[in-house]
Amino acid sequence: MAECTRKQPKANTMGFIDKVLKGFLGDKNTTDLKEVKKVVAKIKAVEPKIQELTDDGLREKTAEFKEKIKTATAGITSQIEKIKEQIKNSSNVDEKEELFSKVEQLKKDSYQLEEKVLNEILPEAFALIKETSRRLAQNGEIRVTATELDRELAATKDFVEVQGNIAIWKNKWDAAGTPVVWDMVHYDVQFIGGVVLHSGKIAEMATGEGKTLVGTLPIYLNALPGRGVHVVTVNDYLAKRDSAWMGPLYQFHGLTIDCIDLHQPNSDARRKAYQSSITYGTNNEFGFDYLRDNMVTSPTELVQGELNFAIVDEVDSVLVDDARTPLIISGPVPQGDRQEFDVLKPSVDRIVEIQKKTVSAIFNEAKKLIANGNTKDGGFKLLQAYRGLPKSRPLIKFLSESGNKALLQKTEGQYMADNNRDMPKVDKDLYFVIDEKNNQIDLTDKGVEYMSAGNEDKDFFVLNDIGTEIAELESKNLSKEEEFEAKEKLFSDFAVKSERVHTLSQLLKAYTLFEKDDEYVVIDGEVKIVDEQTGRIMEGRRYSDGLHQAIEAKENVKIEAATQTFATITLQNYFRMYNKLAGMTGTAETEAGELWEIYKLDVVVIPTNRPIQRDDKQDLVFKTNREKYNAVIEEIERLTAAGRPVLVGTTSVEISQLLSRALQLRKIQHNVLNAKLHAKEAEIVAMAGGPGVVTIATNMAGRGTDIKLQGDVKANGGLAIIGTERHDSRRVDRQLRGRAGRQGDPGSSQFYVSLEDNLMRLFGSERIAKMMDRMGHKEGEVIQHSMISKSIERAQKKVEENNFGIRKRLLEYDDVMNKQRDVIYKRRKNALFGDHLKYDISNMIFDVAQSIVSKTKLENDYKEFEYEIIKHFTMEAPVSENEFKTKQVPELTNIVFKAATEDYRMKLDLLKEKSFPIIENVFQNQGSMFKMIQVPFTDGIKTMTIVTDLKEAYETKCDSLINDFEKNISLAIIDENWKLHLREMDDLRRSSQGAVYEQKDPLVIYKQESFYLFSEMVEKVNKEIVSFLYKGEIPA
């Protein structure tokens, strides 16, 4: 024990310093709560006044609040109206742009004012919602004077009935298939949660503290200004349930409510859902709607509206777990990717088989050597087996036995010394090497030889050092053309090869690191990802970088064609766009750092209404999985006999099924809840609190499920939670624990751990293995010790840091994209609404002029200058050769810009003159038949069709037709180039990873290269749009 005792003082001094600091500075959470409690006191003070109101008086408050907000911002609103009028009447492009920025600023001021008013009316608003809840719960109904909205609702809903001019609001309704009787009234702790949420922070509240009810307070308050409130849930079941469950509370006060998941994308119904005061939905749908809105070609197709206030339920799940995979809208790749998966699959089958045989032989030898006491050679062989197939079951079992893990770590340490100098000796007998922690696989020399057998090219799978080859080429003194050709061939060979090596490594990963029913499931011939945090199937998501295709090849299902990205965003960047963001969850404390760093969201822990009485026991640690599962089953038998319900948490579908089979053998009744059976979720959860009921669930049972105790369960000791292994992330374990002990109920939780578990295997330290050996820990014995529990927590922290790293990396790449997305989406929006389009076109003309002048002036080439001017502006050069040679770039640019602008104005007038007779003819002869007509435009090469309003075109003498022409051409050319650019960015991201081999940071390369790519794209877009606008005419 010497090494354990020696390290003690350090921890104590740290603890002591923390204590002193807390003494001086106070605990941050306590300070936060102090502020909030002042507000709660104000709510309590206005409650009596609200209680005196009549039922109609309750409803009139909402109108009064809205009026307050309107009066406060009236000054700004009228200013905005005035400026909009000026914009209409102004024809100067620059002046207009200035007025537009003024409007933007005023809108921001208006928002600040609204927030101030909301803080003033907060106490009354919160008290009002509580009083409404109380009257519904206690009186069973509320009778009020019927309004238009009441009559509409009465026609379709069962909770409102209209008799004459009286509307009766009942307290029973249907919440997405579950009948509910309203019996909830807010208590003071929930006010605290509501205030924290309104201030744009995260409220951490224990399970059963009624997060959904807490949400009603800030949601109602923030819906009053009419900018929209988005309530974001983890899955569509919760979105549909919560919107129907809490809906009547808002509808009583005249607010509208809808759920986007009930409607199809791009539909009128979904557009209407966004126009409601309060909109419920899942994070994915909100994000995808944003992307789809940036792909439409007419303002009437827009769905989403302003991103004002989002309140995220289960905020850690949405903003942390789901944020690992970006949202992508994709379509088929035009030139179809080289599908090498089918071609390489047979050889991968072979190499995986031969590796298994080789490793199995090496492992058996290692066992013999170690049993005979030869740990030097035995350790070497053991390390070989571990590097060959770390996930093999026999090996995992062997490593959990006394002393073996420590031997492996010691041997690995020796061979890793001096930058892995001796590692090739270990790998020489293997075909490929697996680094499980970093999810990487590399072919060894032997593997390359084996895979290339029968190929004339022995370097079929070897990436040559391209730098050396280029140097060799350059020393050959070839002519310019030959050298260029040779280099091109080198690069194209390298690209083909690196694609092949990439495909091969993805196939090897699919075969050795991804297991069916663990990381993914196969349903109806499709490979679907199972979310490791929640155990739910992630519909529509695919692994990136060809990994998904590799798994499809392995499982012999149809390999989906490679796709290209049309639009993409990470959830982080989507949610950062809201004016205000808040969230609630039971477990955010462990991720508080990440939530602050990425979203600037503060976590405030809300005290529970009644003290928690759950008994959380220390972990039980076993040597092997077999012993662990036997112990779990015995414990289940003991608990059910005592009349307690049991919830067994597992980390994968596979383990759920294994336990289920074991319980069937012992004839123990139970229910299973996992990704394959998620349809029955609601009814299984409803039964889970009965005496002696056993429920096995993947961690998804944690989220949004409330297990209510039935019968004598409380007297018997409450719900018992059994965790069958520690999850990588502490939050998920806390989620599981939190299912017991809600609202001061009794309960207990106990985790069972074995040294074969993933977490212990990959991150458990040597100390645990050594300690267990030292305590003389024999097979079948169990150990329970606070030091072991601490070690496990340390291992979990390691994994959390690792995961945060991955997400942060993803975000850093997306931040680069985000800057570009902002520019392009802004330009799309300008074109879509047409307000700023004239300004944008004017800027484009200037940029193209500048680009032509600077390039030709650099070479002092007047001929080229003339040619470029004709090519893009279809006019002659506005300066003579002499002027071109003597004038400087800025002056020349201005001359070209002025001439081009004048030319463009004349060109548009001419276009109007030419088009009007055609429009007039159609309008007078067939005006009654058509509202919209299609007008073709061509630049001599491409033809594009513009749809325009016939009557409007006739009445404005073709002005509206010209605007539609500018708008549609701009949109079409921006979209086409943006798609190509996204494809290039995908390729760049893949190729920049190769920078690692040159000891450079891929992200830096990605940032530099993407900047050049983007600048090139913007220039190309400008030139293409300008060129089409100048040449475009209606074909004869």
What does this structure look like?
The strands form 8 sheets. The protein has a 7-stranded parallel sheet with strand order 8-9-7-10-17-6-18, sandwiched between helices. Strands 19, 20, 21, 22, 23, 24 and 25 form a 7-stranded parallel sheet that branches. A 3-stranded antiparallel sheet has the order 1-3-2. Helix 8 crosses helix 9, helix 20 crosses helix 21 and helix 32 crosses helix 38. The N terminus is likely disordered. The longest helix is centred in the C-terminal third of the chain and has 48 residues. The chain is α/β, with parallel strands linked by helices and 1036 residues long. 59% of the residues lie in helices and 12% in strands. Strand 24, helix 28 and strand 25 form a beta-alpha-beta unit.
Strand fraction equals 5-15%
Q: Would you tell me the overall average pLDDT?
A: 83
Tell me the helix content: 55-70%
Enumerate how many helices there are, as a single number: 38
Short description:
The protein has 1036 residues and is of the alpha/beta class. Helix content is 59%, strand content 12%.
Write the layout of secondary structure elements.
Elements: H1 2-6, H2 8-25, H3 28-51, H4 55-89, H5 93-139, E1 141-145, H6 148-156, E2 160-163, E3 166-170, E4 172-175, E5 178-181, H7 188-198, E6 202-204, H8 211-223, E7 229-233, H9 236-252, E8 257-259, H10 268-275, E9 278-282, H11 283-293, E10 309-313, H12 315-321, E11 327-332, H13 341-371, H14 375-388, H15 393-399, H16 404-420, H17 423-427, E12 432-435, E13 440-443, H18 445-452, H19 466-474, H20 480-512, E14 520-523, E15 526-529, H21 547-554, E16 563-569, H22 571-575, E17 580-585, H23 592-599, E18 603-605, E19 613-616, E20 620-622, H24 625-641, E21 646-650, H25 653-665, E22 671-673, H26 681-687, E23 694-698, H27 713-716, E24 719-723, H28 730-737, E25 746-754, H29 758-763, H30 766-774, H31 786-833, H32 837-859, H33 862-873, H34 881-886, H35 889-926, E26 932-938, E27 943-949, H36 950-955, H37 959-992, H38 1002-1031
Parallel strand pairs: 6-17, 6-18, 7-9, 7-10, 8-9, 10-17, 19-25, 20-25, 21-23, 21-24, 22-23, 24-25
Antiparallel strand pairs: 1-3, 2-3, 4-5, 11-16, 12-13, 14-15, 26-27
